[in-house]
Amino acid sequence: MNAKTKKTVELSQALHSEGPEADVGAAVQEIMRVLEEEIVLGVLHPRERLVEDELMARFGFKRHVVRQALAELETQGLVQRKKNSGAQVRALNAKEVIELYALREILETSCIRLIPLPVPAARLEQLRAIQRVHTDAVKAGNPRAVFRANLEFHAALYALSGNDTLIEAIAEYARRTYPVRLSTLVSNEYLERARQDHEDIIEALRSGDREALLRLCAEHLRPSRDTYLNNLKRLGQLEEAAA
Fold first, then answer.
1. Rounded Cα–Cα distance for residues 196 and 215 (Å)
2. Going by C-beta distance under 8 Å and a sequence separation of 6 or more, which residues neighbour residue 8?
3. Banded model confidence at residue 153, pLDDT cuts 50, 70, 90
4. Residue 181 — pLDDT band, cuts 50, 70, 90?
5. Residue 88: beta bridge partners?
6. Dist CA 73 CA 82 (whole Å)
7. Which of 106, 235, 83, 86 is closest to 173 using CA atoms?
8. pLDDT in tens, 50-109
9. What is the band of 19 on the pLDDT scale with cuts at 50, 70, 90?
10. Whole-prediction pTM value?
11. N or C: where does the chain have the smaller number of CB atoms within 10 Å of the terminal CB?
């Protein structure tokens, strides 16, 4: 039994011990979390099929649980269903990526405008503690830990706005761009830039420099978008050359 299979078996056993209602809700969320991470990290590739029988065997749950998890991922824009081929990881085209990132920039900079500045020392220390974890993950070259710490950092940052509806919208549209993120999560240059961006964001929060904060948050989005679009363009050129 490999490590991934052992982990999913242990998860199944733990969830089943909590009762049937807890089983379904917790199992769906855990399947979603694992598949989301695997999409971001490139374990699952765009257009890769997500076969229900294989997921049932892997996670140890019945078809309705797996099907519900896939339906939730489809609602989030990470999975799509194709006629006669079932569920697969969604592949975003250039237009979708441009529009999603334009919307993300509007949402995230709007949230930044709501943050009272300067930020109190206790809230800054919370961000610094998260950033220390992110920095350690970058230095260790651990993309999964980087991804988790990055999510936690931005959740804490946007929580400073106090606007729960806007925060929820930011999280939703950030999830929709998960298939775009791989190319930058495996780039040491980008990871170091993102780490420095976080440090600069904390300093702008401390000093009360809203203009710098807005600029940093907008620029922070662009490398993953631009890298993905460049890769799409390169693949298109390769396909044309092979035709």
1. 14
2. 34, 58, 59, 60
3. very high
4. confident
5. 49, 80
6. 14
7. 106
8. 999 999 999 999 999 999 999 999 998 899 988 777 899 998 999 999 999 999 999 999
9. very low
10. 0.81
11. C
Q: What is the identity of the amino acid at 187? A: S
